[in-house]
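Example 9 (inverse folding). The structure is encoded as follows.
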């Protein structure tokens, strides 16, 4: 019954798009429609990822979900840069890293059974986030004094971004090789074909990007009326919206007992945002308006702390509900810190 309802509710996405352009509803109506539309889309991405993982194993399945799931965040970031909303971009990307490491992973561990996870892959993802945080300091520290968008920081952000992209390519290649070797003989039969899974992932991701962009616009008006800072809206609300695919995908597969895949989805996504998406946005922004890696002290501290907490809890190579609860508690603390930080 629940699956039939989810399949039927996929019609909400095109309905929301039509209503937005044909009826021009108020922000409240648009927010409700867009939020409701993201639920079945996130479920569909999780469904397609699980079917793809039958052919690839959980490691590559998690990588695929992270790649497709992070596409809406890239699109939202470029829209925001085009509108000169640099703090919104940096805040949403910071919130995305933290949200994946604490919120998505936390929920996945809470709803899933206690099982063995891929310790090596988990710690590698956490190490990638920490490496990114250290490199961010090269630009962030001088940005704490003076104009955060000055030309010297724009120039400095480019080589740092290139180094991060090189690290991402090298580590990802090694990780994918390792996962292929681990699961070469573990492919499962049944379910969707690999081609069908990838096609569904692509279509669902495009739809998620469109809906997420509509939701962001409606959230901004809501935030003004709620007297919330742009930074908090970006780091918490926009980040959660942009990560809707990972949220739903990880939780769906975790509830089905595939905790290893759910863990890979959450951690791969967080690492990918830190060492690929953020530098990619910086590089692409050069064609629009240059973005600097001028992260605030609170952003650096919370990203680094989130990676350390996740690594410490997963170092034993096991999942459990109490570990998930600790991660969720960490996210509540992070969200409160972002709220208290306010505008720069």
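The amino acid assigned to each position is listed next.
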């Amino acid at each position: 019954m629940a699956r039939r309802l989810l399949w039927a509710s996929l019609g909400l996405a095109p309905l929301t798009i039509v209503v937005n352009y044909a009826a021009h509803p108020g922000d409240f109506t648009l927010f409700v429609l867009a939020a409701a539309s993201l639920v079945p889309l996130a479920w569909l991405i999780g469904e397609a990822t699980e079917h793809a993982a039958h052919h690839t194993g959980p490691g590559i399945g998690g990588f695929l979900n992270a790649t497709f799931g992070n596409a809406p965040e890239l699109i939202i970031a470029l829209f925001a840069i085009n509108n000169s909303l640099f703090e919104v971009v940096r805040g949403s990307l910071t919130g995305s890293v933290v949200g994946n490491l604490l919120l998505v992973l936390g929920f996945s561990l809470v709803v899933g059974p206690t099982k063995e996870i891929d310790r090596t892959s988990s710690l590698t993802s956490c190490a990638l986030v920490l490496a990114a945080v250290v490199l961010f300091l090269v630009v962030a520290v001088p940005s704490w004094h003076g104009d955060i968008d000055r030309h010297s920081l724009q120039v400095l952000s480019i080589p740092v971004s290139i180094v991060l992209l090189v690290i991402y390519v090298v580590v990802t290649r090694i990780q994918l090789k390792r996962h292929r070797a681990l699961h070469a003989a573990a492919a499962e039969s049944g379910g969707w074909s690999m081609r069908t899974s990838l096609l569904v992932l692509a279509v669902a991701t495009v739809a998620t990007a469109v809906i997420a962009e509509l939701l962001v616009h409606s959230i901004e008006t809501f935030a003004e009326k709620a007297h919330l800072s742009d930074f908090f809206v970006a780091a918490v609300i926009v980040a959660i919206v942009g990560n809707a695919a990972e949220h739903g995908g990880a939780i769906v597969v975790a509830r089905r007992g595939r905790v290893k895949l759910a863990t890979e989805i959450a951690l791969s996504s967080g690492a990918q945002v830190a060492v690929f998406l953020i530098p990619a946005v910086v590089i692409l922004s050069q064609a629009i308006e240059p973005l600097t890696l001028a992260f605030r002290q609170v952003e650096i501290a919370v990203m680094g702390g989130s990676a350390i907490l996740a690594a410490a809890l997963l170092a034993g190579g096991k999942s459990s509900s109490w570990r998930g609860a600790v991660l969720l508690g960490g996210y509540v603390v992070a969200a409160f810190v972002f709220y208290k930080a306010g505008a720069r």
